[in-house]
Protein: Inositol-1-monophosphatase
Organism: Arthrobotrys oligospora
Amino acid sequence: MTDSTTETGAYDASSINLQEIHDFLVSIAHAAGQMITTARPSNSRTGSKTNAADLVTETDRAVEKMVSERIQERYPDYQFMGEETYKPGDTLTPSPTFIVDPIDGTTNFVHTFPYACISLGFTINLIPTIGVIYNPFTNQLFTGIKGQGSYLTSPLHDRERLPLKHLEPFYDENGAGGLSNCLVIGEWGSDRSGNDYDIKVKTFRKLCADKKDGGAMVHSIRSLGSAALNFCGVAAGWADVYWEGGCWAWDVCAGWVVLKEAGGEIVDANPGMWKAKIDGRRYLAVRGGEGWEAVVKEFWGCVEGELKVGME
Ligand code: IPD
């Protein structure tokens, strides 16, 4: 047992000043935003990682370098996991850990589609505890601290608490509504082959299809390209559900805090698995509101198989 671990092996977080770390991350987010908006993404400066649709730019790497150096200087004893420096086999531990995606929505960034952000998360004992997400193109800053609520600050919102609207029950008094009343977010991801891609395509079809054809007839599906901002969208109440298989802890850590603090829940993308793991790579995020468990079950009923990502 070290000075910072308890008898159970958990990290003793009582001396950590969460507000100070939150404020520090907000200042980093703004510095990163400056780098992102002044960069000129071009195809000649863009490369790919696992396949031709898994993009990375010089700016992703430069932002992560800046962020990791500033964190290392201020919090040298804490762990760091970043998208661009992650190596297969790196795992999360109970120690305080910064989990960073320098640009979430890199494909959007490359195409100048203004839905991209820096995502800065902080975990203690593997529990997402602080989240700071900043879209510098729209000047939207989403923040949250575990147990203290989550907020949106933007040109239209003066640090407003999330959700931005009253969370209606999912079903009316006659039991009508539920999934069919939902606006769903679902991403294609960059992996476009095999079992998981097949399940995604079939699941999207079933979610959208008319009820007379056995579908859920959801209001619609959005595919926007940033997991972190998708979590924030559900937290705000702009969308009801977000289903994802394939993204990573750095894509979801900060958004997890923002959503949970707004009353939302996160379960596994695969049917029947009520407990999602931060690094589990499969997520079903749902806004708060009475009846959310029934909506999760309805959604799982549309998942056409079992996603294998995260099981390897
Ligand atoms: C991607 C985005 C996308 C999600 C992908 C992620 P990146 O992150 O979050 O929405 O579907 O799985 O890889 O590569 O832009 O940081």
Remarks:
- The chain has a mean pLDDT of 95.
